[in-house]
Amino acid sequence: MNEKMDLDRYRASFPSLEFAEPAPAVLEVVIANADRHNAASESMHRDLAHVWRAVDVDETVRAVMIRGAGEHFCAGGDFEMIERMIADEATLVRVWKEASDLVYNLVNCSKPVVSAIRGSAVGAGLAVALLADIAVAGRDAKILDGHTRLGVAAGDHAVMIWPLLCGLAKARYHLLTNQPLSGEQAERIGLVALCVADDQVRESALEIAIRLAGAGTTAVRWTKHALNNWLRLAGPSFDASLALEFLGFRLGDVREGLAAVRGKRRASFGPGESGPPGS
Description:
There is one protein chain. The chain is of the alpha/beta class. Helices cover 52% and strands 15% of the residues. It is built from 14 helices and 10 strands. A 6-stranded mixed β-sheet has the order 1-2-3-5-7-10, sandwiched between helices. Strand 1 (17-23) and strand 2 (26-31) form a beta hairpin.
């Protein structure tokens, strides 16, 4: 019989997230900031980066399902965090390290992860949603990388996994133009594994997580490890994209981009800086 999870330990260590055990050996992680469409505060960004290490070593967990509270998955980083990143170098460096940890810790987590995507999935939240081993999206989900709209390079996760999932042509189109996708469109191009009715997202994702929790432990974990070598091969490209994203937080475009997003208007960016070496 499976030992019961110590959910109180998770709650104490990662207080910005919510946790449950909806089925034996399945850990449910909930991104909860409902008043802001589950936008990631600084504390949540930190918790989303580090929770995967705890999951990895917890033998009471055999599978994870992650979702957002209410009608949305995650609306990306909250405005206050972005403002502090622009204004304070120490915050910028810390969040840069956390953004890298979030991706690599999730990629290297031995336990299979299923994401249940409803409503908006943007930024750091989208990184978690798409780096999950199996992503289940509602038909009306809104998937948006969001970086170029803000005035910075597409960092986080996108350069690592979008070309592998949906091909370079579609990745270029959606990451450069910031054109959002519905869950139905995302399934069509291969960005998510499954698309279901919006009111069936959690149930479908949980069913998959239960199936994974009941499968052969080493078979599932070692298959995941081998498959994720495709992502590890893209590590240098991801590292470059993340460095360029955070360099962008020291330039003027991000201030205009943030003001435009807050004001729900089109940004008026300047002529731009020189490109990276070799461009």
